[in-house]
Amino acid sequence: MAEHTPGAQLVSRVSRVLKTVAEYPDGVTAAAVSHATGLTRPTTHRLLASLAAEGLVDHDAARGRWFLGPELYLLGTLAAARYDIPQAARDSVRRLAQQTGESAFFSARRGTETVCLLREEGSFPVRSFVLHEGVRFPLGVASAGLAILSFLPPSEVADYLAAADLPRRWGAAHETPALLERIAATRETGYAVNPALILEGSWGMGAAVFDASGRPAWALSLTGIEPRFRPDRRPELGRLLLDEAHRLGTALARQAARP
Which of 108, 207, 221, 229 could covalently link to 144 via disulfide, CB atoms 3.0 to 4.6 Å apart? Predict the structure, then answer.
């Protein structure tokens, strides 16, 4: 229905541009936005210029980079009362970083993607920078998305994998048979493991956080270099993730039940 709605294509393009700009806190070139969104460069330039005129993006002409604009900050401030990240999530991420020494994250499901909302650095000096606030991955890619996908109903998983075409961008490790094996392993242990499938040497582990209806809506995750995720350490990291995910899910359900 959406594709037949007047203006729906334009709205979709604007959304893709804004989401791409949001993934680059230090700014992004128009060429990079064009590549990430699949839009032509002239179309990308027109959209960025129009968004800048409305204050939704900002352009640093000297550096040739685009940033999220002040109007988005104002709109986000108004929306925060409904969608603000609860303190419980911040506490869970902080505890995971302190207990493990790794970088810890809180991500939310948005349709067929996860978006990182919080990051807390651990004490270990060597870090992985695959994930930061604003970064989005499809479900099944990265440990947070794998954790969430693994606990969706099997019919939803099958429908998603049939339509997603993950191998085209993310490689053969994300073909359906391999992904189904990781889903099965995640369901067995309770936590997901990403063995450097996005960036060589960068490992991740994640656990789903369930909403009041029992659906996976968020995820807590850890990332770091491969030696920090050796086989004998993974069960302990998994236990910490599951403990915090349960604690956070309980807190969120309690908050949602308040009048």
Answer: 221
C-alpha pair distances (Å), 249 with each of 2, 7, 136, 180, 242: 33, 38, 22, 25, 10
Q: Are 257 and 213 in contact (CB under 8 A)?
A: no
| 232, two tokens | 């004998």
Within the chain, which residues score under 70 in pLDDT?
Answer: 1-6, 80-84, 125-130, 256-259
Classify residue 238 as left (phi > 0), alpha (psi -120 to 50) or beta. alpha
pLDDT of residue 81: 61
Instruction: Name the token pair of 56.
Output: 């939704």
Q: pLDDT for 8-64, tens place per residue?
A: 888 989 999 998 998 888 899 999 999 999 999 999 999 999 999 999 999 999 999
**Distance between CA atoms of residues 18 and 44, nearest Å:** 11
Which domains occur in the chain, in start order? 2-74 (1.10.10.10), 85-257 (3.30.450.40)
Are 209 and 220 a contacting pair, CB within 8 Å? yes
Amino acid at 187: R
d(CA 143, CA 137): 10
In the Cβ-directed half-sphere of 169, how many Cα atoms lie within 13 Å? 11
Can you tell me the distance from the alpha carbon of 128 to that of 5, in angstroms, rounded to the nearest whole number? 42
